[in-house]
Amino acid sequence: MNDETTNEFEPAAAGCQPHSRDASKAVAPIMNVPETTTRPSLGRKFLVWLMFLGCSLALGVAVVEVAGRFLFRSVADDAQYYPRLEAHVVRSAPILESTRKPGTFDIKFGYVLSPNTTLTETRDGLKFTQHTNSLGFRTREIEPRLPGEYRVLLVGDSFFYGIGVDEDETIGVQLERMAGSDPEIKRPFQVYNFARSGYCSVQELLVACTYAAQIQPDVIILGFFAANDVIPNALTRIDDEGHFAPVAERVERFRNNLRAELGPWRHSVIFRIVSLTSPVGSRLVYRLGRQPWVLEQNYEVLRQFQRFCRDHGYRFGVVFQHTTDSLAHGWRAVFYPRDDVHRPLSAFCERSGIPFVDMRREFLKAGNWEQFIIMHDGHCNARGAHKTAEAINQQLIRPELVCQAGP
Prior knowledge:
By secondary structure, the protein is α/β, with parallel strands linked by helices. The chain has helices spanning 2-14, 21-31, 42-71, 73-76, 78-90, 158-161, 171-180, 201-215, 226-235, 248-262, 269-275, 278-289, 292-312, 324-327, 331-335, 339-352, 359-365, 382-405; strands at residues 118-123, 126-131, 150-155, 189-193, 219-225, 236-238, 244-246, 315-321, 356-358.
């Protein structure tokens, strides 16, 4: 009896399970379950793929950067890169030391064209002929003024000069043609086109101050190209000797602003190469041009023009000219902060009582603006020059002439 009792409780005392047939059947299925492997989630795979792609790109960029410093030494060298970039953004000569080429520098205007010259030029597939007068301008000789004659003096850059169009297609010639065919304009009418390619508004003010007394214009019309004029206007002045001259402290401020605009990317050879392209150069012009100190210097140039004309009895008007980066919509409108420059300039003219024509508005109002532009060059074609002359005539010239001819 004692043996039976001991056998009954012995497995429990030993802490072991009883070796019964039922127990072995319960354990067997657990021991025979095959092992399972956990598959990575889709998000984890994507993360690994992104890390691999990022490492590959970083390695590729590093290789290109290292190779670029050997293949593009002039871009990698600060002493060569920054002067190139500055000239690329300023877009007007000769303001910086690097743009003053021997044999072409003129102490008064910066540079001039050869007088009494006929030149046929092919530019980007366009062939056009240019004639300069004895003063080096693409216009007629200054003649004695006829009784009752109405005279227009155009000053500007390549848009007024007429890059890409022949003599009879320039804005000045088309203005004369319009006035001659208008039965309501009774007065003799002449246009003197004293524009030069590459000039900024400060140089154009100097041209007006130098030649207006000989021409005796009724109105001086300034062609203002924001993508080409805003930076040079901020960096230069007419000095005490009546010469076009850079202002050292403003040039230094521009250089500091330019480096700040580039940010840390300026150390990358890849970015440096890209920064020397036309799209990035235009973007830098607008981003630097919208700075308050740059805009204020442009306002001052317009004030000087207005003051000069008022003091000498000339009327004054402005034509804001535009190219593809100002006219196009879509990504260009986002990439180029053009309105940050154009709007303040237009608003200043309105506040100051300066009549102006905005050719972007005129081109867009006419429908397809591309019909007026040499797309691969950016200048106005013959139709664009005609449209510009038409807008100048209708808004800045004809109202006064017709009013004077009235009873």
